[in-house]
């Protein structure tokens, strides 16, 4: 649920970009957000305070994240992510969610306790959801319009703007959520939020976007470079979490992730 909420900006921005005829911005937003989530967000959080990663279920979620990324590469290879590919993404997401809920219920009843202790009424919650949706709609409109203007004025491609500027903007909720989770010592949410958000970005965001409006992959560097770098960051994250029974994302590991992200952004604009 946390990952779904923090991925909402990516969904609105990608759908808006697709409707505005800038599909590279839509796909770049997702791929760039996935890279930023690991390199920038986890890197910064780990540099502030080491993150214990001792939940063995992270391995399964990490595997799903890799599967989702490879599936995206496969579907994008022919230059189009169409309606059928979007349906496959959404069905895959549904199966993943069903498994996650089943796993959580078997593990404990802690989630039930959280709902019972909620101190906000259903009407107030619905009100804030409605306000947030309206804000996301207009925020996506302004962000896509501003990003397209930046691409034209800087003389760079929509892909680069999507991967850098737009992806950073839509990744801010992940940063805020991870920092708050770390402050409350809910370390599983901190790492799980990032991995879950990356899964949602591909299967939910691109799935919904492709069903509504097919996405053309115009910039081939998205396949030959950016998606491979996304997988590279994911592999590095797994190596840094080993052994899963007592792993820790220490400050020096966070610094490496962060510096690699800065280097990647520098190379994009170089």
TrEMBL record:
InterPro entries the UniProt entry points to: K/Na/Ca-exchanger, NaCa_Exmemb, NCX_ion-bd_dom_sf
Tagged with keyword Signal: no
Keywords noted in UniProt: Membrane, Transmembrane, Transmembrane helix
GO biological process: intracellular calcium ion homeostasis
Signal peptide extent: none
Transmembrane segments: 25-46, 58-77, 83-102, 114-140, 160-183, 195-215, 227-245, 252-269
Localisation: Membrane
GO molecular function annotation: calcium channel activity; calcium, potassium:sodium antiporter activity
Membrane-related topology note: Multi-pass membrane protein
Gene Ontology cellular component annotations, sorted alphabetically: plasma membrane
Domain Sodium/calcium exchanger membrane region intervals: 2-101, 125-269
Keyword hit for Ubl conjugation: no
PANTHER family from the UniProt entry: INNER MEMBRANE PROTEIN YRBG (PTHR10846:SF8), SODIUM/POTASSIUM/CALCIUM EXCHANGER (PTHR10846)
UniProt-recorded name of the protein: Inner membrane protein YrbG
Taxonomic source organism: Geofilum rubicundum JCM 15548
Source lineage: Bacteria, Pseudomonadati, Bacteroidota, Bacteroidia, Marinilabiliales
